[in-house]
Amino acid sequence: VLCYISLGEVNKYRWYYTLMEEQGFLGINENWDSPYLNLADSTVRSIMLDQVLPNIMAKGFDGLFLDTIDDVAPYTERSHLQPYMLDIIQQMRERYSESVIIQNAGFFMLDRTHSYVDAVLIEDVATNYNFELDRYNLQPKEEYKQKVENIKRLRSKYNKPFLIVDFALNEPLRNEAMSRLDT
To answer: Is 91 within 8 Å of 53 (Cβ atoms)?
Structure first.
């Protein structure tokens, strides 16, 4: 059983939100109404590593599912925070060496994180979410093929399992996604 933890932003309903708020945020993820964490702030990193993680792991989880790594992607205003994201992931591995750690997306960091994570998860391979239309669609065929080829390349390069999570809210879309993924 893995525990979900957001490394790049914090939901306003998390118990540690007010601790993070005192340090200040770097904007808001408009899609989820979650403030971006200032990972360059040593207090923010300390809250994550010394308070949030021990609180989570004390509940008996087998590991961690690390989300919102993409918040420091090269195309974001927060790309300069990549070394701090790496530091947090590295320290998680050191502190919880026997735990399973799964990285959600963040392919741009795999060259640095692959030795600290046990697997990589990627969402929206066969399907994608359209925020403007507020619905899931079948991924365009070319984008799907590119994603699959990228996963194959990275899986081979880093020798890590890749897990795929896709979403479909109706039977026809579910069947089309499953048909693609079964191949």
So the answer is: no
Asked if residue 179 lies in contact with residue 125, where contact means CB atoms within 8 angstroms, the answer is no
Q: Which two tokens stand for residue 19?
A: 């601790």
pLDDT digits (tens, 9 = 90+) for 89-144: 999 999 999 999 999 999 999 999 999 999 999 999 999 988 888 889 999 999 99
d(CA 21, CA 51): 15
Q: Reduced to 3 states, what is the DSSP secondary structure of residue 130? A: strand
The helix/strand count (H/E) of the chain reads as 7, 9
Calpha distance 44→28 (Å, rounded): 16
What does residue 5 show for φ and ψ, rounded to 5 degrees? Answer: -140, 130
Burial class (CB in 10 A: 0-12, 13-18, 19+), 107: middle
Does the CA dihedral 100-78-27-131 come out positive or negative? negative
Rounded Cα–Cα distance for residues 66 and 82 (Å)? 14
Q: What is the pLDDT of residues 46-85, one digit of tens each?
A: 999 999 999 999 999 999 999 999 999 999 999 999 999 9
